[in-house]
Amino acid sequence: MISHEHREGCCAGGPWTGPDERRDRRSAPLARRFAARIALLAAVGCRGDASVDADLVMRGGVVATVDSANTLVEALAIADGWIVATGDDGEIAQYIGPGTEVIELDGRLAVPGFIEGHGHLLGLGASKTILDLNAATSWEGIVSMVADAVADADPGEWIRGRGWHQEKWNEPPDPAVAGYPTHASLSAVSPANPVLLVHASGHAAFANAAALEAAGYQRGSEPPPGGELQRDAEGNLTGLLRETAQRPVAAAYERSLADLSSEETEARFRREVALATEEALSKGVTSFHDAGASFATIDRLRRLEEEGALQIRLYVMVRGESNEELERRLAEYYMPSKGDDYLAVRSIKRQIDGALGSHGAWLLEPYADLPSSTGLVLESVEDISTTAHLAIRHGFQLNTHAIGDRANREVLDIYEAVFDSAGAGKGLRWRIEHAQHLHPSDIARFAELGVVAAVQGIHATSDAPWVPLRIGDERAAERTYLWRTLLDAGVVVGNGTDTPVEDIDPLASFRASVTRQTAAGSVFYPEERMTRDEALRSYTLSNAYAAFEEEYKGSLEVGKVGDVVVLDRDILTLPDDDLAEARVDLTVVGGVVRYSRQVPPPR
Q1: What is the rounded distance in angstroms from the CA atom of residue 239 to the CA atom of residue 181?
Q2: Strand, helix or coil at 247?
Q3: Got the DSSP string for 73-89?
Q4: Is the pLDDT of residue 409 over 70?
Q5: 176-177 and 180-181 as β-strands: parallel, antiparallel, unpaired?
Q6: Following DSSP, what letter does each residue of 374-442 receive, concatenated?
Q7: SS3 of 335, please?
Q8: Whole-angstrom Cα Rg for the chain
Q9: How do residues 188-214 score in pLDDT, each as one tens digit?
Q10: What is the mean pLDDT of residues 443-461?
């Protein structure tokens, strides 16, 4: 635990170091801002004796710098979007001028802006415009919600929702097939409206008769490779779509939008970005690793950045493009971080398997509750290997979704083979997204290959009630969410939520990471917990490292961007039982307050 007596002056963490080989790729405006940064820091120096007035000063609290020594100070100063000093209140006082905004921390904790390590920006935005099924406790309740939505919809209008999970229902639906409902009751309340309800994991969905028909699904239809269509005893489609079987229905929904004008399409996109951004800022997220966007979506995001319309910093992974298209166009989308910019692209996202909850994770041994299956392979080893070689050739990072122990082993095999053939080293920082279920013999390979484990702390406590049902107690104890084992092996572990699969709230994922306590109060294999310092680092500096951005963000040190979150209590010392009460009071991006919690006055 950090000692609250360990305080140092404004030079904590050492002086800022210069740019890397990316300097020559900077645009002219960014180059000017970069030069201004150098001049500003040269003027400030490390002693705080220059006549530089800060734009923003925070003082009178506990500032967790997350530097190499986990230094705590009382205050910090930000000028022109960059941190120019950290230290005690007296040292920072000389940065306060007539135009300086001063925020009194009043003993509160300030930490680096949280970095969402794996989420879906547009998915989060879209989730704010559809039915929220996360709190549903029965299939009947979901059907009722759809009926209400139909009453307000035009005939033919799609009804969409997300967040249902059969393990959260108080009782199984009736009738049911393998614990899942059939679409009869859903179709009865929505005969003229296609309905698509996505599972909380995103790896399954439920469709009514109208949606199945719109997708071209009939009784004898077969799903795309990597997908499953559930059928009842008579061979009829129940409406449950696993993994890639969702794609034809999703495509039918997209076709329904074909009549939208380009202005309407752009307005819809901007609204989803704005809604996601608003939610992220309210939870203290200042940077967001977006786990998958097409070239077309990146083009739209690039326009927003050029307009100055992005308020959180995005690290976007290229997704949904063929290897042929990647070969043809990757070079024009190489946009590594330039410091205080708001859009970086230098990685590719692939997906080898599905999710454990929907029996889609690729396992070394069969499922305990579905002995006929070891899961699904969504994208072939051969295809991902081709992408890996393209990534090496174009200087891109490769980030591959892998949840099951077989999936993780196969991805490590791909990475190792490609690294060997290319003569590449650990510095590539390729990632495995999720890394949920690992065979113990594969842990050391993460460290040996320099592979980042991009985990989601909150998944462990959400999944805890049913993981042993899927793979049995012995495998669950040995292979599930092995954060402590990964960290002890020297693996860089980043953290996130996979939003909208989970609430984007970093504090909830932090709490899960350090307590592994479920909503029911049980503790899920506590020997794999992170320490408080490790959990905070996983959400800040480790995620910055995972995006090649540790030079600019992830800690509150001189020369880094002024991205800061103020919490209403100290999560580094708070008792476990009180962590759920912690809230974000302020979110600052580039020295600008982007979110301020409105606290009701005392009664």
Answers
A1: 8
A2: helix
A3: ESEEEEETTEEEEEE-H
A4: yes
A5: antiparallel
A6: ---BSS-HHHHHHHHHHHHHHT-EEEEEE-SHHHHHHHHHHHHHHHHHHT--GGG--EEEE--B--GGG
A7: strand
A8: 24
A9: 999 999 999 999 888 899 999 999 999
A10: 97
What are the backbone dihedrals phi and psi of residue 190, each rounded to the nearest 5 degrees, phi first? -140, 55
Instruction: Spell out the long-range contacts of 590-593 with Cβ–Cβ below 8 A and sequence spacing 24 or more.
Output: 590/81, 590/340, 590/561, 590/562, 590/563, 591/55, 591/56, 591/78, 591/79, 591/80, 591/81, 591/82, 591/562, 592/56, 592/81, 593/56, 593/103
Residue 224 three-state SS: coil
Q: Cβ distance 261 to 268 under 8 Å?
A: no
What's the token pair of residue 139?
Answer: 């299939």
Q: What is the distance between the alpha carbons of residues 469 and 474, in angstroms, rounded to a whole number?
A: 11
Q: Report the alpha-carbon angle 72-535-403, nearest 5.
A: 160
CA distance 205 to 358: 10
pLDDT for position 42:
53
**DSSP for 350-376, written as a single string:** EE-B--TTTT-S--SS--SS-TT----
Single-letter amino acid code for the residue at 108? R
Are the C-beta atoms of 100 and 57 separated by less than 8 Å? yes
Query: Going by DSSP bridges, is the β-strand pair 584-589/564-567 parallel, antiparallel, or unpaired?
Result: antiparallel
CB atoms within 10 A of CB 5: 6
In the predicted model, is pLDDT for residue 37 greater than 70? no
Torsion of the alpha carbons at 34, 38, 40 and 44, rounded to the nearest 10: 150
Taking residue 311's Cβ as centre, other Cβ atoms within 10 Å add up to 20
Instruction: Tell me which H or E stretch contains 243.
Output: strand 237-243
Residues in the chain: 603
Token pair belonging to 346: 């230098």
Distance CA 100, CA 375 (A): 58
pLDDT computed for residue 9 by the predictor: 39
Q: Which residue has the tokens 């009784």?
A: 219
